[in-house]
Amino acid sequence: MNYQPTLDFARQLDETDPLRSYREQFFFPKHKDEKVLYFCGNSLGLQPRGVQAALERELDHWREHAVEGHFRGEMPWMYYHRFLLPQSARIVGAKESEVVVMNTLTTNLHLLMVSFYRPTKKRFKIIMEAHAFPSDQYAMESQVRFHGFLPSDAIVEVAPRAGEETLRTEDILATIEEHGDEVATVMFGGVNYYTGQFFDLKKITEAAHRTGAVAGFDLAHAAGNLPLQLHDWGVDFACWCSYKYLNSGPGGPSGIFVHERHGNNADLPRFAGWWGHDEGSRFKMEKGFIPMPGAAGWQLSNAQVLSMAAHKVSLDMFEEAGMDNLRAKAVKMTGYLEFLIENLNRKAQRFNIITPKDPEQRGCQLSILTGNEGKKLFDFLTENGVVADWREPNVVRVAPVPMYNSFEDCWRLADLLGRFSN
């Protein structure tokens, strides 16, 4: 597309945007009585306007029915996880039986590793990206120690080549092949939190399977950001949070994916809980865990109804907007912001975008390597009503989210960057 670096052009793009009405369905914080330029959806999404009503409905339901609310009404709590299945499945490209919403992200990652990291004396290694989000690093360290291994022996990290910021797919695949039958689990983030690089999950999964390993992904920065096809790619397991691109509130519930070839295997080891037990006999209160079919069999406790009610509001919006439509706008809008920043660099090379240029290798996020004045730049943006994200040592992360950001937002951000560089 032939982008133009003008405000009029940005407004023309907004006028023809088929998703523009969704912006009005969110609350924006204010800075000096004006809406902020919010580019932090990769950390916490904005609040949908429908959340308050959804929470009030559940509070009314609780007030009116008390414990009987588990069985009464249009959405009885006993079955609440079911009301999130169709939307969740479509967001990650899965069958409804392969997903469930429960707990929070790192809790779910540990629960899934119980099932999918089954090391032996020979096959015990975990392969992951270097500089993964710290929670993933800590989870993997504790998992290997729990099984009696040292992280230095059991965890293999794939790092960028010297002088490069992102990983090459061929290096990831070569590392998996190199360690071969010593690999138990390949566990990557779907999108690297720092660089914004989207990994080739299909190829990574295929490489893991060729060695006899399983492949799983932390999709915290991918779910709701990019179209995913977890079932068709053959991914073994995955988990994600809901408070970033899925706009479901701080500490919002997590989702998990378990491929159907595992989900119906009652002999697969797992940590069991009452809510994952066979629904038909759950209230008999008997010994002997019988897992529900599919991902639902990994549930431990009853639904977090209030947080799930907020999550459902956002999921329904995604269902209405459509991931393909959101992705089309994201590619266009992220490309426009990239164009504007590179246009500034023609005057002086100040902003080095380390996120891959190939749209197939990124979602909404652009990570800008800023040099020695990075924190000063970030503070300048904040003082001028921009909500972005600072990551040490010198990266500003910005995420033009298609559900609520506009092309004019992108233009105004670039205009501020230009003023700083002048």
Primary descriptors:
Aspartate Aminotransferase, domain 2; Aspartate Aminotransferase, domain 1; alpha/beta; 2 domains; 17 strands; four-stranded antiparallel sheet; globular; 14 helices; 422 residues; 14% strand
Sheet having the most strands: 7 strands, mixed
The CATH superfamily of the largest domain appears as Type I PLP-dependent aspartate aminotransferase-like (Major domain)
The parts where pLDDT drops under 50 for at least 5 residues are: none
**In percent, how helical is the residue content?**
25-40%
What is the molecular shape? globular
Strand order of the largest sheet: 6-12-11-10-9-7-8
What's the rounded overall pLDDT mean? 96
Q: Give the tally of structural domains.
A: 2
Cα-atom radius of gyration:
22 Å
Strands, total number:
17
Number of helices: 14
CATH topology of the largest domain: Aspartate Aminotransferase, domain 2
- β-strand percent reads 5-15%
Describe the structure.
The chain is α/β, with parallel strands linked by helices and 422 residues long. It has two domains: 7-35 and 322-421, Aspartate Aminotransferase, domain 1 (Alpha-Beta Complex), CATH 3.90.1150.10; 55-320, Type I PLP-dependent aspartate aminotransferase-like (Major domain) (Aspartate Aminotransferase, domain 2), CATH 3.40.640.10. The chain contains 14 helices and 17 strands. The strands form five sheets. It has a seven-stranded mixed sheet, sandwiched between helices. The two termini are 28 Å apart.
